[in-house]
Specification:
CATH topology of the largest domain: Ribosomal Protein S5, domain 2
Structural class: alpha/beta
Number of helices: 9
CATH class of the largest domain: Alpha Beta
Number of strands: 15
Radius of gyration: 26 Å
Strand order of the largest sheet: 3-2-1-4-5
Shape: elongated
Number of domains: 2
Largest sheet: 5 strands, parallel
Strand content: 15-25%
Helix content: 25-40%
Amino acid sequence: MSRIVFIDRDGTIIEEPADYQIDSYAKLRFVEGVIPALLSLRDAGFEFVMVSNQDGLGTDSYPLETFQGPHDLMMQVLESQGIRFREVLIDRHFAHENHPDRKPNLGLVMGYLRDRSVDLAGSAMVGDRETDMQFARNLGVRGFKLCVMAGAQADGASDGERLYGWSEIAHLLVNAPRQARVERLTKETRIEVDIDLDRVAEPVVMTGLGYFDHMLEQIGKHGGFTLRLRCAGDLHIDEHHTVEDCALALGQALRQALGDKRGIGRYASAQEGSSEGSGIDLLLPMDETLVRAALDFSGRPYFVFDGQFPREHVGELPTELVPHFFRSLCETAGLNLHLAVRGDNAHHMVEGCFKAVARALRVAIKREGRELPSTKGAL
């Protein structure tokens, strides 16, 4: 399917003058970083459609002949760099007319709404005005409000509104960082989880349970992704709500960050030494303990556990909550997980479970390309 970046013209591709009309060659100036960003997007397979409001174009106040020369030069410069537009759509109406072709209305782009070969979920709109962002919402694509000058406030931007530069927009669309932030608030726990599946960083975990913190750190460290988790729970009652709700919040974050799951491995890899693709098991030893983990991001929650711990607690963590943690994780992550553990030392067994699942996650969430690993067309 085609992924399209819909792009405003004035203030987005070229700088907008004080009188809002680029009607001479002297006023033609490209926005900083636009050409490298568009080249990066082009190389990633995006197509471009320009959508621009040009108030009163063709009237005495804005003659077509003064517009056309600078516009043609702009297009020639872009094409000389290998940047070509699938379509250039320009509306000439004034704002008070509220014409269906004028952004944020969709009259000019109705064909893209009807075209089933266009991936609107993977497409985007870049502009410098709130009308561009409303256009993005109306069209059902991701909107990026451009800030041309570092530290400046774009037209119509409210305090604290998220503004982007061209290089960041290209990074977010081309590399599509898989990030998620989840806040879970109940009468029993208050949890904040931040993850970035495409960036390695030391995990930061604070739940009030030291050994449980250490186990969650294993997921981030051996999973190969950024994990920050903070939980304030009703530990004056017991550990159950903290452990369960942390699992639910973490699973929700994983599901959100994975998005449509295109390009992921989906399954854990075959164990080291076996032939490629021969299975989905990951074996992890820890002294006398051996753990087997097999997982599938199928979208269907299912958990199977095989093992018995030789004591009831490790630190402040009841061992009966270990399988419950992974079951809760599966529920919100849409994960199918089989976990088996054998050993004599409860500390090794619990830690081995978390490490094995983390190493399996590392393989399953690794992204290569854009193929969806399913014959169904959805996960």
